[in-house]
Design a protein that fits this description.
The protein is of the alpha/beta class. It has two domains: 30 residues, no CATH class; 171 residues, Beta-carbonic Anhydrase, Chain A. The chain is 43% helix and 16% strand. It contains eight helices and six strands. A six-stranded mixed beta sheet has the order 2-1-3-4-5-6. 29% of the residues are buried.
Length: 203
């Protein structure tokens, strides 16, 4: 905590006074975020920073490799799916953005194997993206396979989002749109998935 508390002190001294009225309104009126973002928990890619978003603007879910599992309601634990249900059904977000990123450790583990120091949870979690890995291995076009899988994992998560019935229903009536992006931590460039299936740098 000693390394974190000075940051809190700066927040209280500068950011809190500047945003006090915003937080007050959020407390009184509740949150109505502009979008839901599913991002990786990698410390180098913060969606709020990338999109320059303020308090209450984004409903953010972060997990290893920004993955969305297929719709599968059962008695086990589903953190990402629970957040999706709340964001879509309770908060009624109009957009869901899957934000992948370059140099993703989760995708690297999917392609090259999970570190021996992490034997319990990562392997079954990243197996969600096995179809993305298979697509990359079947299409040997000379590109970096990890980079290619980072793109494919975003596409797969978008496909899995559409398996949730209350997401599909809202897409069908125009109440919800899905978007894929990939942030390169080396260049600061955000690429956006186009209708043709390619990622292009955002303008």
């Amino acid at each position: 905590m000693d390394a974190l508390l000075p940051g809190y002190a700066r927040f209280r001294a500068t950011e809190w006074p500047a945003q006090r009225e915003v937080f007050k309104q959020l407390a009184v009126r509740g949150q109505r975020p502009q979008a839901m973002v599913i991002a990786c928990c990698d410390s180098r890619c913060d969606p709020a920073m990338v999109f320059d978003a303020g308090p209450g603007e984004l409903f953010i879910v972060r997990n290893v490799a920004n993955l969305v599992p297929p719709y599968s309601p059962d008695g086990t634990y589903h953190g990402t799916s629970a957040a999706l249900e709340f964001g879509v059904c309770a908060l009624k977000v109009p957009k869901i953005v899957v934000m992948g990123h370059a140099m993703c450790g989760g995708i690297s583990a999917l392609m090259h194997g999970v570190p021996a120091s992490c034997p319990d949870f990562i392997s079954p979690w990243i197996s969600i993206a096995e179809p993305a890995r298979e697509r990359v291995l079947k299409c040997d076009d000379g590109s970096d396979p990890v980079r290619a899988c980072e793109y494919e994992a975003v596409k797969l998560s978008l496909e899995n989002l559409a398996t949730f019935p209350w997401i599909a229903d809202r897409i069908a009536v125009g109440e919800l749109t899905l978007h894929g992006t990939l942030f390169d931590i080396r260049s600061g460039i955000l690429e956006v998935l186009q209708e043709n299936g390619k990622f292009e740098a955002a303008k």
